[in-house]
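Supplementary Text 2. Reproducibility record for the structural model of the 355-residue chain.

All settings were left at their defaults, and a single model was retained for analysis rather than an ensemble. We include the record here because the model underlies the residue-level annotations in Supplementary Table 4.
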Amino acid sequence: MAAIAAPAVQGLPPRWRVPLLLLGFLCLVAGVTGGLARVGFGALAVIEPSAGLHGVLMVCGFFGTVISLERAVALERAWGYAAPLACGAGGIALLSGATAPGLWLLAAAAGILVAASLVFVWRHASLEGGALATAAGCWLVGNVLLALGVPPAGILGWWLAFFALTIGAERLELSRYLPRPRSAIWLFAVIALALVAAAMGPLRFTGIALVALAGWLLAYDLAWQTVRGSGLARYIAICLLAGYAWLALGGALFAIDGGYDTAVHAVLVGFVFSMVFGHAPVIVPAVLRRALPYTPWFYAPLALLHVSLALRVAGGLAGEQAIRGAGSIGNALAIALFIAAAAAQALRPPVRRTP
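Retained model, structure tokens:
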């Protein structure tokens, strides 16, 4: 299929991408503190309505902004940046009490992301490109239903499909040079279709599809090769493999109805945030044109994330609110620690090598 020629100048200079990212981080702060308020730490909520908006702020305000900003940079079209702008603005509107405009801004952001994803499919038709476009479509369906009044619990399958297909498609693309049977490609396509179909039904169906995707990733991902390396390559691989394990557990919990809150956080914290921690050293330079050098200190927030999530999951399954709350605090601290470590690395002056 004919490719669209990319313009010489990317859509938005890196310095103008920073405010978009800051909107996402504001949603992150409000979403995390709102989540802590929901487990008994109400005094930590920085904005009053954030507790009731926790899921929307995290899925759309933060992750939506980051994912659509990354896609806009790759698209190299100015209009693509309307998606992260609408995400961030939608989150701010929700926090300010403008609920209906905020929700429709989030739906508009998803629509723009769908359009951007279809441009990539037009440029280069591939299974991973189709999966990314399908992921954006799932996010659009979920966000429109949310704006129409369906509660977040009723659209969770669409949001989970959005994350699973986005990450799965990216890993499929990065692992395409590994030797694997042709059946593996067909199996990925079947799992992708199953995720979309499952989103229309009970969450247990989505859980089964998530377990299948975790199995596919654990069987065919490049991480099994790079984990044998060192430095950044090993760090990313460990993030990925740990995330896949949480995806399998979260999917299993959905499949057996083992606890809604526990399953949600196993997937969205254990799987999705592990991907964020792992890919940040690659994504930040691409988006902001600012180096994010690897440091072994990145393992500290990663370890805290997974240990505290294990505590949270154990507390949730056992019905122990105090343990669940302690794990939630640990999750929040891990995210804050990683942001601090990443900012310190990005802002440190480049090392000058002696000739």
